[in-house]
Amino acid sequence: MIGSIPMLRGLSGFSWDWLRSDIPAGLSVAAVGLPSAIAYPAIAGLPPETGIYASILAPIAYAIFGPSRLLVVGPDAATMTVLAAAMGAIIAASPAGTAVDRVAIASALAIGVGVFCIAAKLLKLGVLASFLSRPILVGFFAGVSLSILVGQIGRFTGVKIESDGLIAPLVEMLAKSGLVHWPSLILGLAMFALLWIVRGLHLKVPGPVLVVVVSVVLSAIFDFRGQGIAVIGDLPSGLPALSLPAFHQMPLDKTVLGSAAIFLVSFGAGIVTARSFGSRTGEEVDANQELIGLGAANIAPGLFGSFPISMSDSRTAINLSTGGVSQLAGLVSAATLIAALVFLNDALSILPIPALAAILATAAISLIDIDELRKIWRISRIEFIFALIAMWGAISFGVLNGVIVAIAATFAYLLRQTMFPRDGLLGRIEGRHGFFDLQRFPEARPIEGAAVFAVQGSILFYNADYVRLRMISVIKALPAETKYLVLDASAITYIDSTGATALEAVADMLAKRNITFAIADLSEESRAILDRAGVINAIGADNLFNGREEALRTLIGDIDQPDRTVPAANVP
């Protein structure tokens, strides 16, 4: 450990006995990861080898800097879709006639994501992992999955699709239906069916691995390349050289915004994965420390000609199910992929593109969490609506703009939850201690000569007017004999300058009615705001109390006496 930066924490306490568990786990992770490593780059229009590079370099970097012993990082379908949108924005903003190096752009964005991770760690912004709520992420990923599915039309059919969006590619496909390459379509659908058969039969061999093996064997036997079925083609047989992408040739604003969008989605979804597996293993997940591991795991591929990655749920699940105990499994996986790149180059070069499309389509469908959407619908209709808004944003405006819609939906959801804070008049119940909401407890009675009004939430610029109008309506309904109004501030976390102005207006109205305004249990921070705003001076420092009981006993005497409550008929 160097300062607050974790170093080799995932390998701490190393024992040679771990090899018996981590080597088989690492081999399994590599076997499952290879098909997706080759397939996922196609989402962003990148060559297949970039996915292998990412699957090698990211786990090595995470093993050094990541805090978790069991998490496995690597290419992720949702992250790749946001990457594709960010790359599209950068390419569109580049000067006409400029040569476009897609790999360099992806590398720059990977480094940008890593920088955002490190900056967020320094600012202790691990809380950003919870910024996109689970319902909004579920909805957003459902929209992303549809984008991925539409993107596979050309790979399944062999038809070049030039339209973007959701509907336009379908319309273009209908117009070009006469150009469909039927052998490609039949192969792709057969591999797609095979994936679902393997899933349905719960075979021990992962479906993507079986698809790669079967399609490569068939490609070798029937010469798919000669039959007009597109194949991957030759892959580099070694690792790339260290190189820094030419940032100065890319529009800075689009690069920064693209990196920020990828960071938010990658980190938000990644922490959901980390916490999900952490709950099973008992491993605590520190979002701020994970920022270091994820940052390093993005910068490393970016420096070697690859793209941004995230925490992989499928690879982590394989690691756990096969008994992995440390980050040594990730290192074994990286070494296995290096060997595959060197020794299986010829075999991988004849892997048919329709088979990759089948893998991508299956991965996309897995992003649609129907069970979770049903659960959200059952728990909260409002949250379900926000999930649909996030889904609609990704579908209607494109993935990159969909991130903005998801963020806007998050803000709208937060505002809705805090714009109308709960409030109510409080009273006493004979024979019971404490105060009770008069609306919720019919047996509760208000205090004679006084009113206790509680606000459950901060009073800020966007809800201050609502709170002011609520208090004014309560004041107008008070009995004529009311001499005191006590604001129970125990649930008010913060009052800003606009909130202070609202309370000042309430104090003025109470003064005109000869009702004393008192505040109980006010936080020190809010008290300082009210003091600087002159509200404390207006109501009098003697009318600030540590609690409701203290306030009422000081103002009207013993509040536990029976004659201190008002009969039910007089409750406002």
TrEMBL record:
Residues 440-555 form the STAS domain. It is a multi-pass membrane protein. PANTHER family: SULFATE TRANSPORTER. CDD domains: STAS_SulP_like_sulfate_transporter. Keywords: Membrane, Transmembrane, Transmembrane helix. This is SulP family inorganic anion transporter. It is found in: Membrane. InterPro entries: SLC26A/SulP_dom, SLC26A/SulP_fam, STAS_dom, STAS_dom_sf. The chain crosses the membrane at residues 21-44, 50-65, 77-97, 103-123, 135-154, 179-198, 205-222, 255-272, 292-311, 323-344, 350-370, 382-415.
